[in-house]
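Entry for zinc ion complex. Fields follow.
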Amino acid sequence: MNKAYAFAVNGQSGEIVIRLSATVAGKLSYIKSVTIYTGEPSTTAKTNYHNHTYRCRHAGSYTDREYIEAAISNGYTAIGFSDHVMLPYITYENSVRGIYWESTEYYNTIRALQNEYQGKIDILLGWESEWALGGLFEDYYRYLVDNNLVDYLILGNHWQIFDTSSNRFIAPLEDEAHELENVQNYVAGAIEALDTGLFTIMAHPEIFFVKGYGNVQNFTPVMKDLVRAMCEKAKEKGVALELNQGYIDNMETLERYTEFWKIVKEVGNTVVIGVDAHYPGAYNESVRNRVISFANKIGLTLTMDLGITRKTPKNVPLFRLEGQYEPTDANYVAIAKENLTWGSIRGLNASENAVTLPLALPSSFRDCTVTWSSDQPEVISNAEP
Ligand SMILES: [Zn+2]
Ligand SMILES: [Zn+2]
């Protein structure tokens, strides 16, 4: 669907065509945000959309406030929190991302900071999120975006394969024989993800060069063609590619990084700088200036402001996988009432509603103890051992 709008603002006039396309049958489509520039691009905006927090377990114990203050004192006009996405599949302790049930606290805390700092700095709320080949996380991400739980999503495609039997990502094999396959998987995953329209930025799009994420040493012509297709897809979908400050040493010294960004230049992608802060000191002007001079050397045009807007979240519960409950007493009672456990409790109690809180279910298969209590003690009876 194409629609043309005429505009006349501050002595400039013209026509804008807005093109809407639905690429996924039966799924909602939407516009992330539309920013129309009708003059010189802003030279005052200084943004960073890539900032982590202590919740990911590998970013120290700095407070959210310390990052915001570091951004303010370095002259930033906007900071986007994009911690490693908490995934409904990952409810165990790990060193990459928070446990899924902590998402509520992240949303509430960052939303409160948005209000508190209004007028001082724009704060945005997002995630840096992986895409599993095949689209395993798509419904979850769509739920986040459609319900305005986040303002934006970054595609941070560290790994491509997610194993649902262990609920873990599988790292790529990194010998020379697998280099092409690693780029093929990386690009295939990226194109699937970009096609959904769910993402605003693609972080460190050349991460497959890095050890642990593909370790590709020889950037062959076949790989370059794959990368070009990925960049063209990002351009088609309006997704900005990120020059990651953490990679500056590689960009300056390794030929394959230069070759990658030359393709970006040829395709004509929108490019942003990402601090990828895992500590407040990552807001560092001399590092940022080195990134800018790398961009200038390649001839890349940097966009400072992507026009991401703050959304009003809908009042919806956390996304859950089928049959998944947040581990609260209230939910355990609900689960017990739905399954066999309730059968044994019912035998002892006058009313299903007698069981309220707390309900302790067996914690292992050797433990057969079920205990419960009620605010209606007269209807509770306990089994004799
Ligand atoms: Zn990280
Ligand atoms: Zn990151």
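NOTE: Residues 52, 56, 58, 84, 278 surround zinc ion (ligand 1) (CB under 6 Å).
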